[in-house]
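Subject: Sanity check before I submit

Could someone independently write out the structure tokens for this chain? I want to compare against mine line by line before I put it in a report. The sequence has 294 residues.
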Amino acid sequence: STQMHYSHTPDHVLTYVSPQCRQFLDCEPEEALKHWMDFITPHPANRLGVERTEAAIRTGERQLPYEMELISRKGRKLWVEVHESPVVLKGKTVAIVGSLTDITVRRRSEHIAECLARLGRELAATTQSGQAALAVADAAQELLGWDACFLKVRTPDLSRAYHTLRLDMMNGQRVQFPEDDGDGITPIEQRVMDQGRQIILREPGTADVLVPFGDKTRASASLLFVPLRHHGRYIGVFTIQSYEYRVYDQAALDLLQTLADHAVGALERIRAENDLIEREQRYRCIGANAKADR
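---
Independent answer below. Compare away.
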């Protein structure tokens, strides 16, 4: 079932939870019989839920449903929709009874859609490849999380890097590293070009055979690589990496590819616009030199 039923006292202590708490809270029903606020996160949206529950206790009247972010005994976060009613005896609220519906998947889908829409607006507004690269890196951080990020856009003939973004988390701060890794195609980039997106989940003690970047004192444990393709033509590579083990899965790889697909149009547009500006400047310079020689 996707619903968990419960009851709690006016002091917010749970007196009953249905067996579905094993799926919701990762514990046995008897282990959940404590203050229900122990199962909520500090998310700002939770304040509304607390206020509505307290209003129901105070007034004895049913309040509107609300959404909350919970955290299970194992530290897993989930979103629920809460429907509850006060139990009133002789004009006094003696209990709250209600049900939780798991809406984590729906909330995740809504969050992804909102993030993609915002990314689309940012990419459409920018004229700088660096800003476009940062926008897609920020979106990946928001939706997937990463400790290191690398994005490279190549020239049409793939002979050199047109733009490279390299970010790493060092001492809790995001640091951007200079574009100094050269134009060569590394073995992992060649694999992405030939085989498409890659997911690498290392085990403890595994040797790092990839070319490091950023904080070279630490090896990434979970790595996602996706190609940047414009109308089917390879133009670059995008990777996010984590120092934690097994934090990414196939769904994360699919989402990273979606972010990359959103970015390639803007990145290619900016490159083409800059190439046009350079050619016009070059032609003007040639024309000016020709007049000077007459």
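---
OP: Matches mine. For the report I'm noting this point. The first helix runs from residue 21 to 24.
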